[in-house]
Amino acid sequence: MSSRRLTRALLARVAGAVAVASAGGAAGAYGCAQTAPTVPYTPVTGIDLPSMSIVAGHGCGIRPDQVYRYVAVAYTPPEAGTPQDPAAVAASSLIDCFVDGLFSNLDGGPVAAMTGQAPFGVAVFAYNKCSFPPGLACTSNPVSCPAQDAAVALGPAAAAANWTTTCTATQVAGITAVAACAPLEPTEAGASCPEDGGADGGADGATGDGEAGDGEAGDAASGEGGEGGDGGSSDAGDAGGGDATADSGAPASMDAGATTSPD
User: Fold this and answer.
1) H/E/C letters for each residue in 92-136?
2) Angstrom distance (rounded) from CA 165 to CA 249
3) Distance between CA atoms of residues 183 and 54, nearest Å
């Protein structure tokens, strides 16, 4: 065999080997792609409190007739009606009006441990902004949410609530149950604010939501200053709960995480 023919034969073999390797690489890249393992979704075992259902007819906001925040207290058995005994309380928390509350993995007692089901009642104490007790507000430094203490949630602060209602739900293992809530009912406190020099001034102060304390609401309420301007500034302080920053710290959080205050 001549050298020329030998060279051609060797080149043909090399080209064939390259073609086979290329085809194998393409098959590995496109025909045998690997997929990431699928992680199954496991629902939270707990009870969801639907905000839209709780505040229906009132809405969320800072007006006296609107819900600002509410305290939810879960207890068992629900036949108790209200959790008069803090020992019956499974959990409690402060919730911003526009956020669904979530209680997870509540302790339903020995029966629930065997059956995987436990009925709960949830008492709701709703506040407008000017009636909201500053002592219930969560703080970030130090981290503290007083309403998570049943004794605090059911203490004198509960009597200051503008509205109350009760929800019921059965916690089932592996399921997030949605609570059924009755409409909010007004309390003796009513949907009003402490007297602060007139409804109009109070409304202007609330609209400013704390900024009115800088004098803008006061000027608007009295026509550029004067004694009425001072009154408007006082209204803003009252509308803000007496302390424009008292409830502006870290909002309440349950398992759902931190939330942002509507103001």
Assistant:
1) EEEEECCCCEEEECCCCHHHHHHHCEEEEEEEEEEECHHHCCHHH
2) 26
3) 7
Residue corresponding to tokens 């019921």: 168
Question: How far, in Å, CA of 48 to CA of 168, rounded?
Answer: 10
- Give CA–CA dist 247/261, Å, rounded: 9
- Nearest alpha-carbon partner for 152 in 108, 94, 196: 94
* 191-to-21, 24, 94 alpha-carbon distances in Å: 80, 76, 19
pTM of the complete model beyond 0.90: no
* DSSP states along 41-56: P---SEEEE-HHHHTT
pLDDT tens string, the chain, 263 residues long: the values are 566 666 666 666 656 655 555 555 544 445 556 677 776 777 789 999 999 999 999 999 999 999 999 999 999 887 766 677 777 899 999 999 999 999 999 988 887 878 889 999 999 999 999 999 999 999 998 899 999 998 899 988 899 999 999 999 999 988 999 999 999 999 987 767 765 433 333 333 333 343 434 434 334 333 343 443 343 333 333 333 333 333 433 333 344 333 434 44
Burial of 247 (0-12, 13-18, 19+ CB in 10 A): buried
Q: Do residues 83 and 123 touch, judged by C-beta distance below 8 A?
A: yes
